[in-house]
Amino acid sequence: MIQDNLIKVGMADLNVAHLTGVLKTTGLGSCVGLTLFDSTAKVAGMAHVMLPSSDIAREGTLNIAKYADTALPEMIRQMEKLGAQVRRMEAKMAGGAQMFSFGTQSETMRIGPRNVESCKAILNQYRIPLKAEDTGGNFGRTIEFNCETGLLSIRSVQHGVKEL
Amino acid sequence: MDTFRSFADFQMDVLREVGNIGAGHAATALSKLMDKPVDMLVPKVRMVPFEEVADSVGGAEAIVIAIFLRVEGETPGNLFFILTLESAKKLLKSLAGIEVVSDEGYTDMEMSALNEIGNIMAGSYLSSLADFTKLNMQPTVPSLAIDMAGAILGYGLLQFGEMGDQALLIDTKFLDGKEEVEGHFFLIPDPESFPKIFQALGVGAP
To answer: What angle do CA B5, B21, B40 make, to 5 degrees?
Structure first.
C-alpha cells in the first residue's frame, strides 16, 4: 500500500492533488474525511474535518481546514487554482464515527454524526453531489483518495479495506 | 490558547505532579492485581500538536486498546488508559489466566476482563486525584474500544479543537520490567480546567 506519491493530510488539515498522487489521512474517528474530485481536470482534494462549524471556534487564528463550513470553500478554492470547476466536482466522505457509545447526553458525544450532517449541508449549498459515503459506526478509518481514478479506499480494523 | 504556551515551569511541575499522583495510585492498584512490581516513568506534560498525540503509543494507525472515560465535575476533561495489543495479552494472562489465542478480535470474556482492569485503573487514577485536589471529579462509565490510536485519541482533542491545534496532555507510562507490559494514561483536561487545578493546588493561574 505504500506509494511514493502519497500526500499526507493531517488532522484538521487539507490538501489537494493534480493529475497524480494519492491523498491520505489516518485515524479518522469522529472526524470526517471529505474528498472532492473533478474527473475532467483530474484534480482532487481531501480535508480532515474535526468539528462541524466554525461558529464554536474560540481560537485566535482560525484553522479553516478544521471546520466543515470553512474547509469546503477553501478546498474548492485551492482546486480551482489547479483548473477544477465546482460544477464538475463530486464528493465522497468517510468517518464521523461515534468511537465511544455510552449514555451521556452531551452534544460532544454526537460530534461524529454532526460532522457528517454539517458536511452534507455545505456540499448541498455548493450543489456538489455526494457520490458515496462510508460514515457512522463506532470504528476508526484510514482513507486514501486516488487522484487519477477518483477511488476512495477505506481501511478499518474490523472491516478491512473497501473502495468507494 | 497562548496562555497555555506561557505556562510557567512551576505550573508544568504541578501538572506533572497531578499525573504522578493519579498514575501512582493506578500503578499500585495494578501491582496489587498482578502481585508484582509495576514501575512508572515520570509523567510527561506537553503541549502537543494534534498530529503527534498518538505518536507515544505507536502512531495514529497503531491499533490499541483504550478505556476512555469522561471526567465531569469542577475540572472536566478526558482520561484514556491505553494498552498495546501485546501488553493487553500479557495483562490478561497474568491477571486472569486468560491466554489470548486469536489475533482476530477478543472474546466477550476477554473484553469484559479488560474493561474491568481499565475500570479499576482509571477509577484509582481519578479518585486519588480528586482526593488530593479536593476537587469534585466524577468519572462517567468507562467505555472500551480497540481501534486505531488516532481515531480514539482524536476524540479526546475535541475540546482543544475549538481553541487551537495543540492539546496539553499529561502522559504517564508504566511498565512491568520483566514482561514488558506497557501502558499509558493520557489525561487531557479541558482548557477551562487548568485555572481550577492550579488554584486547588495553590499556585496562581497564568
So the answer is: 90
